[in-house]
Design a protein that fits this description.
This protein is mainly α. It has one domain: Metal-sensitive repressor, helix protomer (Methane Monooxygenase Hydroxylase, Chain G, domain 1), CATH 1.20.58.1000. The protein is built from three helices and no strands. Helix 1 packs antiparallel against helix 2 and helix 2 runs antiparallel to helix 3. 3% of the residues are buried. The model has no long low-confidence stretch (mean pLDDT 82).
């Protein structure tokens, strides 16, 4: 499955870059000996950002699959289900 929607790709890349910055912040917090609760809160934010990026990618794949129709080259249902479950 290849993403064909440039807007979705751009949005996902922005989200991933933001998550990358958040993760770097978590690492700095750990190295600085910051409070556990603060670190876990920021780590949870990184996790949510990654999940949202993954769901956006899967949703776009699902949309492409539906519009390709049964005779198209879209992703089959089992593959999409496996992708969704990988993020659960």
């Amino acid at each position: 499955m290849q993403l064909e929607n440039a807007q979705v790709v751009g949005d996902v890349v922005k989200r991933l870059r933001r998550a990358e910055g958040q993760l770097a912040g978590v690492i700095r917090m750990l190295e600085a000996g910051r409070d556990c609760e603060d670190v876990v809160t920021q780590l949870a934010a990184v996790s949510r950002a990654l999940d949202k990026a993954g769901f956006a990618i899967i949703a776009t794949g699902l949309e492409q699959c539906i519009t390709a129709g049964p005779e198209g080259t879209g992703v089959d249902r089992a593959r999409l289900e496996k992708l969704f479950l990988s993020l659960a």
